[in-house]
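Input.
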Amino acid sequence: MKISVITPIYNGNRYLNNYLCMIEKSISKINDVEIIWINDSPQIPLKYDEELAKKMELVIIENENNCGIHKSRINGLKIAKGDYILFLDQDDEIMEETLINQYNKIQGYDLIIGNGYYEDQAGDHPIFQNKKAQDFATRKNPYLRVRDFIVSPGQCLIKKNAIPNIWINNTLKNNGTDDYLLWLLMFNNKCKITSNYQYIYRHKYTGENLSLLEDKMFNSQLELLEILQKNNSYNRKDLKKLERTIYYKHNYKKNFFIQTLKNIDIFAYNIMYRLIWKGYRVSNGKKG
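Output.
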């Protein structure tokens, strides 16, 4: 069984040699792995250690122009030969045991969510503080009522034939939520999802301005909602829950009491989450 590691590259030459060294260690534990790079800054030729690259199966795609991360991932997926897919960002890290560990534990499932580290200015922190919090991330309702609980698709191994066609055929132009869209669609398709409690991934600190990131994320979320609204196969009740959650989370800081009264069920669910299921490190580096 083959694994395809798909990575969009954007102004990423400084990452490539470290990426190859990292992948070389990981593939030494498992046979039949291909690496697919999608150059999403085609005006900049990729520069990397070609002798090192010869030790592995590396395929490079050149986008005609800058397409964004979702379209780039799809371009890689369309040529992938693997039975399983790892969408890995250019600056993130996997461990030496990641591929073999994830592969051995996904058997019979469509998606496996591994634990790992979230890096911020203070250093490394576990993504999931405990098994209870990690298993919570395998359920559908938290994604509709709270947020996306997967830091990055790099902590997941995905069965290729479980990736929904809606995700492949509808590309987000605004970066930020294509992986969230993927998980929502997989839940909608009743895919089988499990946890791997091992630390197999590290999300690197980028230092992005949080307020600017929130605005970009909201625009991407609106586009996500538009895609789901146009596809009748997506559960309408779930869509309504998701839409209310997204708007509530975006607007409650401006008028907390009015917004909360209108969405008291969402507020209550989030309070219950923080009291019972807490243990997840959210993207701004604070515990959730």
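The chain is about 45% helix and 20% strand.
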